[in-house]
């Protein structure tokens, strides 16, 4: 029962990780720049994401521009696009596979098949967490390095936005869920190796019937 409840807890963490991963991939606020200027009426908040750049004015107007050109983007944005999409795909696969391998479900067949499915789902979650953690770290490093660069004007400096924090948290949830799934399957395999099922040997009826006679009776 403890293993089943732990797997269910890991599954809930993985669900939060999947939703957060997808949200972080689509949100436009990977980096944010608030330019108040000389008048609060002309305050502007600029946000840049993986797929679009958005501008929010203090008057309430909001406009976004899609990034159509891929080759004109910096390398870290191109890598973040690819790795975040892979993270979303792997996390969705992990949800489907782990649903089959969980101990509290009736899918997957026998115990060995469910154990393999549970382990495969854990591996998908770990890979999804790694693919989600790498671009957020790289993106954050670029933001910090540009912010500390004295040659860049203040109006062009950005700070990490909410999508970056969502990416970090989602990657952590996926990594924790993957480790729990893999460790639970490993424990069950180890218990099967240490405590193998007992095999009962029953003598055949032919041996029992022959055991009642002596060979001396036929000499």
TrEMBL record:
The chain crosses the membrane at residues 75-97, 118-141, 161-182. Residues 1-24 form the signal peptide. Keywords: Cell junction, Cell membrane, Membrane, Signal, Tight junction, Transmembrane, Transmembrane helix. It is a multi-pass membrane protein. The keyword Flavoprotein does not apply. It holds the Pfam family PMP22_Claudin. Its main location: other. Gene3D superfamilies: 1.20.140.150. GO terms for molecular function: structural molecule activity. It is found in: Cell junction, Tight junction; Cell membrane. InterPro entries: Claudin (IPR006187), Claudin_CS (IPR017974), PMP22/EMP/MP20/Claudin (IPR004031). Belongs to the claudin family. This is Claudin. The lineage of its organism: Eukaryota, Metazoa, Chordata, Craniata, Vertebrata.
């Amino acid at each position: 029962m403890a293993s089943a409840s732990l797997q269910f807890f890991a599954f809930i963490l993985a669900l939060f990780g999947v939703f957060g991963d997808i949200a972080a991939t689509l949100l436009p606020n990977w980096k944010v720049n608030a330019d108040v200027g000389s008048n609060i009426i002309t305050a502007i908040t600029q946000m840049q994401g993986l797929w679009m750049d958005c501008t929010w004015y203090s008057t309430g107007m909001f406009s976004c521009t899609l990034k159509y050109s891929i080759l004109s983007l910096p390398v870290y944005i191109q890598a973040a696009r690819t790795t975040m999409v892979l993270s979303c795909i792997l996390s969705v696969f992990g949800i489907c596979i782990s649903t089959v391998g969980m101990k509290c479900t009736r899918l997957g067949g026998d115990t060995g098949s469910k154990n393999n499915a549970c382990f495969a789902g854990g591996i998908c979650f770990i890979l999804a967490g790694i693919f989600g953690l790498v671009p957020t770290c790289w993106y954050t490093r670029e933001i910090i390095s540009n912010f500390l660069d004295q040659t860049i004007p203040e109006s062009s400096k950005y700070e990490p936005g909410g999508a970056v924090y969502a990416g970090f948290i989602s990657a952590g949830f996926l990594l924790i869920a993957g480790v729990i799934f893999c460790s639970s399957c490993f424990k069950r395999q180890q218990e099967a190796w240490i405590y193998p099922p007992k095999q009962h040997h029953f003598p055949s009826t032919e041996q029992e019937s022959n055991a009642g006679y002596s060979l001396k009776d036929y000499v």
